[in-house]
Specification:
This protein is mainly β. The protein has 1 helix and 12 strands.
């Protein structure tokens, strides 16, 4: 049993942006048509702007805790900042009121019964994502986890590890990692100058390395916290 658990912990999937355009119904995309549960509306920021779908993917079945979930990562196109470190015990409904930010200008969702929205994200040209199964700790001469854009495995912390506890009592588990200064803006549509989307210049959560930690008990679709480091 210990050997099986160790092997599972080492499992990771690197993520690449394909040159293939995404289409409605694709579940692994940068931009595209968000695959949302029927009762889940497209997220809207407190500022009133509808959030942009930066990326989504179906978590591979063999990733512990989250296999089979649809992960969707949104951010307001008009607001750019980091998610700031908080006390290890996160407050109730932290996804709506993050403790160290004035409000949540992002939304991270894990859902199971989604269908593609009728319209695509208007900001980013949809591209398919390719997931490649790998052994997380076989990189950097076996000295550390895989760096870069990935789902599953262990986080490659660029600073000290951060741990958080969900209001439901579960310890948040690492799910996904986005590298520093990932160039989402390269995939912007040609938008009218009147369209308010300056956040893309900074990247996802101000261009930091983003570690997505989520509740393994699935107590709420948005029970996920984006840790930002650089």
């Amino acid at each position: 049993m210990e050997e099986i658990m160790s092997s599972t912990a080492r499992l990771s999937y690197s993520i690449d942006v394909s040159s293939d355009a995404g289409i409605a119904g694709d579940r692994d995309t940068l931009g595209g048509w968000p695959v949302l549960d029927a009762d889940q509306p497209w997220p809207v920021c407190n500022c009133g702007q509808r959030m942009s779908l930066y990326f989504q993917l179906r978590v591979p079945a063999d990733v512990p805790h989250f296999g089979g979930d649809q992960l969707l990562v949104f951010q307001c196109p008009a607001e750019s900042d980091a998610c700031f470190p908080a006390d290890p015990q996160l407050p109730a409904e932290f996804w709506d009121a993050p403790p160290e930010n004035s409000h949540a200008f992002w939304r991270i969702l894990l859902q199971r019964n989604g269908v593609a929205a009728r319209t695509a994200d208007p900001y980013l040209r949809p591209h398919r994502l390719e997931l490649h199964r790998t052994e997380d700790l076989d990189h950097d001469n076996g000295e550390g986890p895989l760096q870069g854009f990935k789902v599953g495995g262990e986080p490659f912390w660029v600073q000290e590890p951060e741990r958080y506890r969900c209001p439901c009592g579960s310890e948040l588990s690492f799910l996904c990692q986005v590298p520093e200064n990932f160039e989402f803006y390269h995939y912007l549509n040609d938008l009218d100058e009147s369209v308010d989307c300056p956040a893309f210049d900074d990247g996802l959560l101000l261009g930091n390395v983003v570690y997505i930690l989520a509740c393994p008990a699935h107590c709420h679709p948005a029970a996920a916290y984006p840790v930002c480091q650089n």
